Amino acid sequence: MVPLADRHFELEVELDSDPEVLRYITGRARSRDEVATSHSQRLALSGKVGGLGYWMAFGSDGGARGTVAPEHEDQGDFIGLMMLPPAHGPDQPDDPTVAELGYRLARHCWRRGLASEASQALLRHAFDTVGQSRVIAQTMTVNVGSQGVMKAVGMRYVRTYFPSWDDPIPGTESGEVEYEMTREMWEARLTVWGLTLTTDIARQVRQWRADDYTWRAIAAAADHQWGTESGGNQLFGSDLCLESARMLGENPEADPWN
Ligand SMILES: CC(C)(COP(=O)(O)OP(=O)(O)OC[C@H]1O[C@@H](n2cnc3c(N)ncnc32)[C@H](O)[C@@H]1OP(=O)(O)O)[C@@H](O)C(=O)NCCC(=O)NCCS
């Protein structure tokens, strides 16, 4: 990923020329002039909090799985635009320690885990390099792909809200959702008793819980399956449930977790 610069303008125009990419954003393709306005706004926001801003993502072989990132953007294929500006919208806090995560990928790059991979890198940057207190992400309730990314990186659902739009697009009637990752969540995120949590692990834990496994049984099953050495510790089982629920964007107090 490289910081957005003027030389990337044509790529932004190309990205926003696909109405499918903007289906849940404007509901239609954007004109060159509209992209020019967004481009200037992005560059202006990039300077507001050091380290936050916008990045253009490039991959090898169109971002195919198993390939490594190119050394230089000229040697790679354009994947999409990744966003981590300071919170700034009307439904966002006026707090420079809060950043907003966003992503917009070229259509041929969807469903390969690329938005999640790049988002994970931006979360790490936000917390470990810039020192943010919280990262939020917002999207239309009907944009399940966008929420898929939020859940995949371990953000949690915060609220559904209903902004008023001058120019509503199909789906606005279902409102917008907000997810977050706090610094506390980031620091606790993947280390549950020495286990590096992944969505696959979280899903397996969920399945065990749905099958009525006790916390102790979950801990024992995790020891067996992933080599942890909790000795079937009940606290490990409950921590694992809590972190798995959070990673999947679910309420740890609700079924099947409670
Ligand atoms: C939303 C978007 C960034 C997702 O990018 P992506 O690289 O395809 O996402 P990933 O492959 O990392 O997928 C992450 C998770 O979401 C799921 N997902 C992604 N797109 C999905 C879709 N259209 N429907 C259902 N689930 C979807 C994936 O299966 C994956 O889930 P998993 O962890 O359970 O396997 C991409 O579709 C896009 O650029 N859309 C247009 C722009 C946009 O809407 N941006 C968000 C505006 S707020």
From TrEMBL:
InterPro entries: Acyl_CoA_acyltransferase, GNAT_dom, N-acetyltransferase. Keywords: Transferase. Residues 25-184 form the N-acetyltransferase domain. It comes from the Bacteria. GO terms for molecular function: acyltransferase activity, transferring groups other than amino-acyl groups. It holds the Pfam family Acetyltransf_3. Gene3D superfamilies: 3.40.630.30. This is RimJ/RimL family protein N-acetyltransferase.
